[in-house]
């Protein structure tokens, strides 16, 4: 064991808001494979809101269209008002881009595990005015540039 190695950061606690059960399973498996934990899952903004925010989590992965309609942005805004950062996971990058101010990242489906890992890292230190984009909604070059890094 190398005592000089920096301590490994604690796993993130992630909330997942998605209405497709197959995508829920797939994304949650990726989150766990990346060393984090999914602490709750909702298929609608109404269900999230009804939970009263009783779950403790570090950030949320949110789809745009949910069981109760195009309410993913409303869910992100509701969490944003409570100081909880979000990442959009969607097949509708253009729509998500309209709500980019509510998210730290926009990743398009199918989700790339490496890009998901980089986006989840943003949850550790949210920076106002900075968000990631996997290049689908804009013509961002490298992932580093898309993540707001030099």
UniProtKB/TrEMBL annotation:
One of its GO terms (biological process) is phosphorelay signal transduction system. The modification 4-aspartylphosphate is found at residue 63. This is CheY-like chemotaxis protein. SUPFAM superfamilies: CheY-like. It holds the Pfam family Response_reg. InterPro entries: CheY-like_superfamily (IPR011006), Sig_transdc_resp-reg_receiver (IPR001789). Residues 135-150 have a biased composition (Low complexity). It comes from Aureimonas pseudogalii. Residues 13-124 form the Response regulatory domain. Residues 126-150 are annotated as: Disordered. Keywords: Phosphoprotein. It comes from the Bacteria.
């Amino acid at each position: 064991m190398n005592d000089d190695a920096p301590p490994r950061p604690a796993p993130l606690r992630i909330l997942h808001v998605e209405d497709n059960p197959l995508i829920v399973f797939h994304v949650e498996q990726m989150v766990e494979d990346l060393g984090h934990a999914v602490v709750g899952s909702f298929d609608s903004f109404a269900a999230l809101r009804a939970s009263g925010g009783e779950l403790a989590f570090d950030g949320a992965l949110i789809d745009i269209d949910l069981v109760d309609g195009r309410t993913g942005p409303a869910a992100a805004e509701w969490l944003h008002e409570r100081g909880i950062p979000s990442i959009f996971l969607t097949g509708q990058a253009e729509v998500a881009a309209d709500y980019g101010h509510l998210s730290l990242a926009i990743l398009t489906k199918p989700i790339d595990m490496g890009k998901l890992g980089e986006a989840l890292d943003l949850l550790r230190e949210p920076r106002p005015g900075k968000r990631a984009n996997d290049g689908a909604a804009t013509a961002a070059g490298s992932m580093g540039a898309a993540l707001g890094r030099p």
